Every structure is written in C-alpha cells, then in structure tokens.
C-alpha cells in the first residue's frame, strides 16, 4: 500500500477514534449527572408551558379574531391591526406617557438600589445592618392594592396624614391623587418605597465578592472612603450593574399595569393612560383581542430592540454584555 494511502487511512482511523470517545463521553456525563438533569425538568416544563407555548397566541395580532368562530377559522388581516394602532390619535399619548414613566424609572429608581447597597456596605455593625435589611425588604411583600390604599390614606386631601402635615406647615393642601402634575412623582415614589430595598440583594451579593485587600492597599495609599468606593467598589460591581441595566431595558415599556390602574382616575387619566392599561381596556372590557394582542406584540418588539441595542453598546464600551 502506498505511503500516502496508508497515512490517510491512519488519519481516518484516528479521527474516528477521537469522535467515538467524545460521543461516549457526552453520554457518560449525561448518565453520571442524570439526577441533576432531572432537577432541570420542572424548570424546562415551566418555560415550555408558560413562556413558549403562549407565544403561539401572537398570531392573533394578524387576525380578526372572533371567539365564536375560533382561532383557526378567524380571518387573516395581516398588519391591519398595527396600522390601526399607529393611526390611532391616542397612540402618541400612550407612547409619551409610557416613555416618560420609563425615563423617570431609569433616572430615579434604577440607581437607588445601587446607592442603598453602597450605604449598607459601609455599615460595620452586623446586627444593625441585618435589622435595616429586614426593614427595607418588607415592603416588597406588600400587595400593590394595599400600597394604593396606604397611599390614599396618606395623600388624600380629606384628612390624609401627609396633606394635614403640609397644611399645618404651608396653609394649603395638595392634590397628589388627582393632579396630573403629581401622578408620575407618586408612581415613582411608590416604586422606590416598595422595591428599592429588595433591589439591593443582588448588589450586596456582588459587593460581598470584592477583594478586601484592595481596600487595605487603598488605605495605605491614603484613600478616603469616597475614593475607595469610587475606585474599588463601583468598578467591582460594574459588570452586575450593566447586566441588570440591559435586562431592565427589555421592560422599558412595561410600566406596572396594576399600579397605574389603581392610581389612575378620571382627573389624572390624560397622563396615566399607558400601553398596559390601554390593552386591558380594549382586550378585556371591549373584547378587541386581536388589536390588544397587536399592541402587546409592538411592546415586545420594542423591548427586544432595546435589549439588543443596549447589549451592543455595552460590548462596544468594552463590557461583556449578556450574550
């Protein structure tokens, strides 16, 4: 046999010998970790049943769905529902209200857990730190209905505690619950009180992994506490901040349906109407299932675009991003 043919045969046998152990190795690993893989089954079923299968329903956005006819027999209308949405005069008001709430959320709410986590990280008495953490975690477990009721009792002009205090100081009462100017501050204030403590959990976990020797070296170099936070603490959790920021951009147009619905009324509705409440009003109360699905799909597409854009910008800035 010629040497060239012999070398090719040996190379093919060697390649086959390499491929077989790899395949066997994968099966061996799966067999070895079968109980761990079994633990993944409930999570996979959850995402399959509640996340992926419902995505079939987005086809309603391209149909004129009639419940008495059924999903498959309803007429295909293409992009007619989207055209109706963009031509609706209320579309720009919905977009404006939703974007403003999203902007205020990013400016005021997103940095708040970071600042609070940095402050808690400076507390050296363990018992005192745990007590503060417990207190600020509790509002997360309060129902939004209860929070709206508390807000009403505090802010109403008819005997509200806050309004009574302001009246004793300034001689006037403020329409926190009915004024268009106060609606967005009240919504952001509620979000801060309810979720800012819970949001510190991830950042405190990231801060726990910061190398303490860096602080010792900074102290030797004469750095004060502010310099230590600026040059050591913040860079150490920068990756966590960027990942959470990218994920939050996906929910930029999700403004908390329950909260906005409970706090809106006839007097502040011009600034309180957002996509979430609009979908509820059309899809549930008026039965416009196809049109409301188109609105929801529009929101989802915008969220995907924002996630990919922010992830791209993060990578261009030298960070890892989320994918």
Automatic annotation (TrEMBL):
Protein's UniProt keywords contain Ribonucleoprotein: no
InterPro entries per the UniProt record, alphabetical: MetI-like, MetI-like_sf
Record keyword Transmembrane present: yes
Cited Gene3D superfamilies: MetI-like (1.10.3720.10)
CDD domains (alphabetical): TM_PBP2
Domain ABC transmembrane type-1: 95-310
Keywords: Membrane, Transmembrane, Transmembrane helix, Transport
Compartments where found: Cell membrane; Membrane
Similarity remark: Belongs to the binding-protein-dependent transport system permease family.
Record's protein name: Sugar ABC transporter permease
């Amino acid at each position: 046999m010629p040497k060239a043919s012999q070398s090719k045969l040996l190379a093919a046998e060697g390649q086959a010998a390499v491929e077989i152990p790899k395949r066997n190795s994968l099966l061996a690993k799966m067999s070895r970790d079968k109980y761990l893989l079994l633990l993944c089954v409930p999570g996979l079923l959850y995402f399959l049943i509640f996340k992926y299968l419902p995505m079939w329903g987005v086809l309603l956005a391209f149909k004129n769905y009639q419940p008495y006819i059924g999903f498959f027999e309803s007429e295909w209308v293409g992009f007619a529902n989207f055209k109706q949405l963009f031509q609706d005069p209320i579309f720009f008001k919905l977009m404006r209200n939703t974007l403003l709430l999203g902007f205020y959320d990013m400016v005021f709410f997103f940095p708040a857990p970071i600042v609070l986590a940095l402050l808690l990280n400076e507390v050296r008495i363990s018992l005192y730190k745990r007590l503060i953490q417990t207190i600020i975690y509790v509002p997360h477990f309060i129902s939004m209905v209860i929070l709206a009721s508390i807000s009403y009792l505090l802010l109403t002009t008819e005997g509200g505690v806050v309004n009574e205090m302001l009246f004793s100081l300034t001689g006037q009462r403020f329409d926190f619950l009915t004024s268009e100017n106060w609606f967005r501050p009240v919504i952001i204030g509620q979000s801060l009180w309810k979720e800012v403590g819970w949001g510190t959990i991830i950042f405190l976990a990231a801060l726990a992994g910061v190398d303490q020797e860096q602080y010792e070296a900074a102290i030797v170099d004469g750095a004060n506490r502010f310099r230590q936070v600026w040059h050591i603490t913040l860079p150490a959790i920068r990756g966590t901040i960027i990942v959470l920021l990218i994920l939050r951009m996906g929910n930029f147009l999700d403004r908390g349906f329950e909260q906005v619905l409970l706090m809106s009324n006839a007097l502040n509705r011009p600034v309180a109407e957002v996509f979430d409440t609009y979908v509820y009003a059309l899809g549930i109360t008026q039965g416009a299932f196809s049109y409301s699905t188109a609105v929801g799909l529009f929101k989802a597409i915008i969220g995907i675009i924002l996630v990919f854009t922010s992830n791209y910008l993060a990578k261009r800035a030298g960070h890892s991003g989320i994918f």
